[in-house]
């Protein structure tokens, strides 16, 4: 059974009790990007050790992907958006 919690009228997070998995669903407004596949803008994965972000980016690039954007959501919370060789966006 899944637990869910709402963060607003357009977003819900789903997870399995007792685990660290998480699926975020966000309802986009008309005119907002929806992703090349028609509904998935990107997938996200949280690294257990944030100091491994640069290595994860290098691995994506070495596999034929690209770094799209990198920064911090807030101090101490780094992120990177990469694309796999097929163009699917991935948040790390």
* Radius of gyration based on Cα positions: 15 Å
Portion in beta strands? 35-45%
Number of helical segments with 4 or more residues: 1
| End-to-end separation | 27 Å
Structural class: mainly beta
Low-confidence stretches: none
How do the strands of the widest beta sheet line up side by side? 4-7-6-5
Largest sheet: 4 strands, mixed
**Mean residue pLDDT:** 79
Shape: globular
Helix amount: 10-25%
Order of helices and strands: EEEEHEEE
Compute the number of strand runs. Answer: 7
Verbal overview:
- With 92 residues, the protein is mainly beta.
- The protein is 11% helix and 39% strand.
- It has one helix spanning 53-62, and strands at 3-8, 11-15, 23-26, 43-44, 66-74, 77-83, 89-91.
- The strands form 2 sheets. Strands 4-7-6-5 form a 4-stranded mixed β-sheet. Strands 1-2-3 form a 3-stranded antiparallel β-sheet, with no helix packed on it.
- The model has no long low-confidence stretch (mean pLDDT 79).
Main attributes?
92 residues, mainly beta, four-stranded mixed sheet, 1 helix
Write the layout of secondary structure elements.
Elements: E1 3-8, E2 11-15, E3 23-26, E4 43-44, H1 53-62, E5 66-74, E6 77-83, E7 89-91
Parallel strand pairs: 4-7
Antiparallel strand pairs: 1-2, 2-3, 5-6, 6-7
Give a concise summary:
The protein is mostly beta strands and 92 residues long. The chain is 11% helix and 39% strand.
